[in-house]
UniProtKB/TrEMBL annotation:
GO cellular component: membrane
Localization terms from the record: Membrane
Pfam families assigned: EamA (PF00892)
Protein name according to UniProt: EamA domain-containing protein
Origin: domain of life: Bacteria
Taxonomic lineage of the native organism: Bacteria, Pseudomonadati, Pseudomonadota, Alphaproteobacteria, Rhodobacterales
Species whose genome carries this gene: Paracoccus aminophilus JCM 7686
Membrane topology: Multi-pass membrane protein
Length: 310
């Protein structure tokens, strides 16, 4: 027998409020990385980011919420490998190999398109023609906003494939977590397991490149604190909460706003100049996101698992 879930309508303002908070926190990662990477290798930054986040969440994960079964633990560890280690580490490694940062950011911004494409076969949540048009317009806005920062470097071809693979892995992991019901575990528990899993793997990579001792006394601590509070607890927490409540493609579509909002963060924090293209791209992206969100269902659940696959 298939277990049916009773869907309760979400308050009208819940989605706009969550979406606004999500994009503000999701686009904040650049600021934290810039602070922390001034005096440390990016793999060391990722190690301390995931370790601190996981350790802070650990007592709450153990004491608050349902008992974590071995099956749930292993499943969340697998998603931690994908969403923490392969996604964050893949982009970081691509940059270290010489892929321009602007191009890596563009690959990351293709996540909404990949999630939209995967939602139909995996979740049974097909986008309407209007929503597909909005998705394409959102991508066009991203291209306009980031046009001045795009360039091709001298990295080996496989390094570009690494960045594309990291994007695809995160998109696939997002829809699979919704498809398999992984969001039934409270966010603080799943995020704790995923962060500690990523920390263990980043420790192996960082150790091979040097010491795990953090370079204290500079901006490293500020960067890690920023990455833990805003880019991990808030960004991932909001992302997983939104995926729990709304269709995956609807949630991912908001991420198209990440490049222009990141530029606004950089302007506010570091005084980096803003360009006319950025504002044009922001306007185009906002229009595309509006088309994608319009007439979208306020809540949706994944298709029930096939009993033969259970």
């Amino acid at each position: 027998m298939t277990r049916q879930k009773l869907l309760t309508p979400q308050p009208r303002l819940l989605w706009p409020l969550l979406a606004t908070a999500l994009i503000l926190c999701w686009s904040s990662g650049y600021i934290g990385v810039r602070f922390a990477s001034e005096s440390a290798d990016v793999m060391l930054v990722l190690f301390w980011r995931t370790l601190v986040a996981g350790v802070v969440l650990l007592p709450f994960a153990l004491l608050i919420g349902p008992r974590i079964t071995a099956h749930a633990l292993l499943r969340q560890m697998a998603f931690g490998v994908a969403t923490m280690f392969l996604y964050l580490g893949g982009f970081a490694q691509a940059i270290q190999l010489g892929v321009p940062t602007g191009l890596v950011a563009l690959f990351s911004d293709l996540i909404p398109l990949a999630i939209a494409a995967l939602s139909a076969p995996i979740l049974g949540q097909s986008l309407s023609a209007r929503q597909w048009k909005g998705t394409v317009i959102g991508l066009l806005g991203v291209l306009i906003a980031t046009a001045n920062s795009l360039s091709f470097g001298a990295a080996p071809i496989w390094a570009y494939g690494l960045a594309i693979a990291a994007m695809g892995i995160f998109a696939l992991s997002s829809v699979l977590q919704k498809r398999l019901g992984a969001f039934e575990m409270p966010v603080h528990q799943s995020l704790c397991i995923q962060c500690l899993t990523g920390a263990g793997l980043f420790a192996l990579v960082a150790t091979s490149q040097g010491s795990l001792i953090p370079p204290l006394g500079g901006h490293f601590e500020i960067g890690i604190l920023w990455l833990v509070l805003l880019s991990t607890f808030s960004a991932y927490g909001l992302y997983y909460t939104c995926l729990r409540l709304f269709p995956a493609a609807q949630v991912a579509g908001v991420l198209y706003l990440s490049p222009p909002v990141t530029m606004l963060w950089a302007w506010a924090m570091f005084g980096e100049p803003l360009s006319a293209l950025m504002f044009v791209g922001l306007a185009v992206t906002l229009f595309g996101v509006w088309m994608t969100m319009a007439r979208a269902p306020v809540s949706a659940e994944p298709a029930p698992p096939n009993p033969r696959q259970a």
